[in-house]
Amino acid sequence: MGILREDVVVISPGEKAGDSTVISVNCPDKTGLGCDLCRIILLFGLSIARGDGKWCYIVLWVVGKSNTRWDLLEKRLLEVCPSYFSTSGIGLLPAYKPAAKAVGCVPSEVLVFL
């Protein structure tokens, strides 16, 4: 269970002309994530009118140009978000390798105290 990739970054255009576009980002937190997201948004020529968020959920209200490539912006924002697998520890554990069977070894005695 987790969040679908399309739900990590959601860009919702303003309802009326002149309304801010709302960008919501829902991904695991990492050091500098907010700075990375803001830098990308500013590089696209957008202005951040307002922001809110906590932990791994960030909402930004942006104002920009009519010719903004929203699909490319979404792709760039997704690239800086860490995946859930990288922060959960899955895939970070060493692969299990069974120990080689020693030849001529006798199992030690098992003592059970009751």
UniProtKB/TrEMBL annotation:
Keywords annotated in UniProt: Repeat
Protein name, as recorded: ACT domain-containing protein ACR
Job of this protein: Binds amino acids.
Keyword Lipid metabolism included in the entry's annotation: no
Organism encoding this protein: Corchorus olitorius
InterPro entries for the chain: ACR1-12 (IPR040217), ACR2/9/10_N (IPR056816), ACT-like_dom_sf (IPR045865)
Domain of life: Eukaryota
SUPFAM superfamilies: ACT-like
Domain (ACT) ranges: 13-82
GO molecular function, one term: amino acid binding
One Pfam family linked to the record: ACR10_N
